[in-house]
Q: What sequence folds into this?
């Protein structure tokens, strides 16, 4: 019996040793923060939230009504916190949470069945916000591949390389999406009104 | 280079892009504190090593149970052999005691009677199944039983340990939608 227990303990110790081996300072920030969060450190996850909040916000803004975005961002991060143990590659936290956000947006549309009025979304606190909401609606009318990249670039202020790193897309894809998307957007805005 | 500006904000700025940035920037993400419910925590993943330990423990328990059953089975024929002669021999004196004046010619008839043929089996079934074990066999059986009980206890402990480590406290999240 004691031999069995000792064997089980050796197994446990070996896994702990492997985990310790992985904890090097050379790890990307995501890896360190995910590790901290899995150890129960909520501040670690809070830093991930700060780091990836704009990404999730941008992905949602390109897909769901603006009034729903803030609540969904919170929901997605809480869901991610609960399911963090299912993330195999800690460095891929960005692509993982981006996929959760896209799925949640799809799910939102499936449930709401277009009952949300667009006019509510266009209402802004001032003229500039209203104008921004109008342009956002035009961006949202673009093909899927372009609108997310454009929102991340123009609304969230991320650069192309940042978008590529955080979403897991290749830089070449992001570059192509940005240029083609901007070309389409300019054409649509030019038809509608001059900037 | 307006292309470079769109890509990484370097080079000569594109006025259209700058204007769009300025307008759409009003919708930019404004961080709000993440509100964690009280007891929410990341669920702990089940370590494959623990599963392996469970499997090994169960295997050992099964082997121990098998061994114990084998030992028990090996002892059964001896018991039956020990019991069988007694079952066949005991009715005879009773018969003689009940009917001492019965002629001997009646015996072959009784031997052919199916009812009397069943008697030994009936008698065998009535005998309590107390195995006649030698002290050494009793020790072996006791040791096997102890081994089985220890293995089962160990398996139970391990399962409890694994359950305790893997099951994290969960709280129902409000507005939880299916994702992924």
A:
């Amino acid at each position: 019996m004691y031999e069995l227990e000792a064997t089980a303990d050796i197994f446990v110790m070996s896994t702990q040793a492997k985990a310790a081996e992985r904890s090097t300072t050379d790890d990307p920030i995501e890896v360190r923060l995910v590790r901290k969060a899995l150890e129960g450190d909520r501040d670690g996850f809070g830093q991930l939230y700060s780091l990836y909040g704009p990404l999730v916000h941008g992905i949602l803004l390109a897909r769901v009504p603006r009034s729903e975005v803030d609540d969904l961002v919170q929901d997605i991060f809480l869901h991610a916190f609960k399911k963090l143990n299912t993330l195999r590659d800690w460095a891929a936290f960005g692509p993982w949470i981006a996929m959760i956000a896209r799925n949640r947006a799809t799910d939102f549309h499936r449930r709401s069945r277009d009952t949300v009025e667009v006019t509510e979304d266009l209402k802004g606190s001032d003229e500039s916000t209203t104008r921004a909401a109008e342009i956002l609606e035009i961006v949202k009318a673009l093909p899927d591949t372009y609108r997310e990249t454009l929102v991340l670039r123009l609304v969230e202020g991320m650069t192309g390389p940042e978008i590529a790193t955080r979403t897991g897309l290749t830089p070449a894809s992001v570059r192509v999406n940005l240029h083609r998307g901007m070309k389409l957007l300019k054409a649509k805005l030019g038809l509608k009104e001059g900037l | 280079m307006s292309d470079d500006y769109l890509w990484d904000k370097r080079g000569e700025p594109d006025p259209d892009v700058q204007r769009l940035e300025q307008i759409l920037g009003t919708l930019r993400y404004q961080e709000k504190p993440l509100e964690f419910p009280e007891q929410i925590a990341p669920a702990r993943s089940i370590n494959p090593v623990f599963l392996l330990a469970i499997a090994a423990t169960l295997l050992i328990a099964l082997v121990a149970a098998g061994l114990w059953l084998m030992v028990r089975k090996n002892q059964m024929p001896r018991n039956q052999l020990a019991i069988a002669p007694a079952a066949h021999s005991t009715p005879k004196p009773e018969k003689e005691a009940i009917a001492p004046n019965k002629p001997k010619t009646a015996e072959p008839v009784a031997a052919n009677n199916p009812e009397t043929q069943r008697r030994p089996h009936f008698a065998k079934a009535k005998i309590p199944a107390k195995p006649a074990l030698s002290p050494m066999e009793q020790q072996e059986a006791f040791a096997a039983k102890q081994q089985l009980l220890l293995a089962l206890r160990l398996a139970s402990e391990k399962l409890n340990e694994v359950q305790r480590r893997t099951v994290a406290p969960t709280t129902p999240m409000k507005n939880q939608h299916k994702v992924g």
Summary: The mean pLDDT of chain A is 82. Residues 24-192 of chain A form a domain with the Rna Polymerase Sigma Factor; Chain: A fold (CATH 1.10.1740.10). The first helix of chain A runs from residue 2 to 22. Chain A has one domain: 24-192.
